[in-house]
Amino acid sequence: MLTESATYQIRVKGHLERNWSEWFEGLTMSWEKPDETVLSGQIADQAALHGILNKIRDLGLPLLSVNSCQETIGA
For 65, what's the count of Cα atoms within 13 Å in the CB-facing half-sphere? Predict the structure, then answer.
């Protein structure tokens, strides 16, 4: 049996505070540039991805990119 696992990297302009990490549970936050925040990790499905993107929009941070990396895992 094969399952799909999607890992995403979401880059935004601006700085997400560490205490906001609870809003993005399961994702890792990093700062590659002083004015950019990168959220990365596995996201269960499209509905969860849209929820995260809505939170970013609600915070007023411009979205720079969303990249996915699909892995096929044999079980």
Answer: 8
Q: What is the pLDDT of residue 5?
A: 59
Name the β-bridge partners of 10.
Answer: 39, 66
Token pair recorded at residue 19: 């205490």
Note the helical H segments in the chain: 46-58
Report d(CA 54, CA 61) in Å as an integer: 10
Counting every residue written for the chain, the total comes to 75
Q: Token pair of 27, please?
A: 């994702």
The CATH code of domain 7-68 reads 3.30.70
Bridge-partner residues for 39, per DSSP?
Answer: 10, 29
Which 8-state DSSP code applies to residue 24? G
Q: Which amino acid is at 72?
A: T
Map out the domains of the chain as residue ranges. Answer: 7-68
Per-residue confidence at 67, pLDDT binned at 50, 70, 90? very high
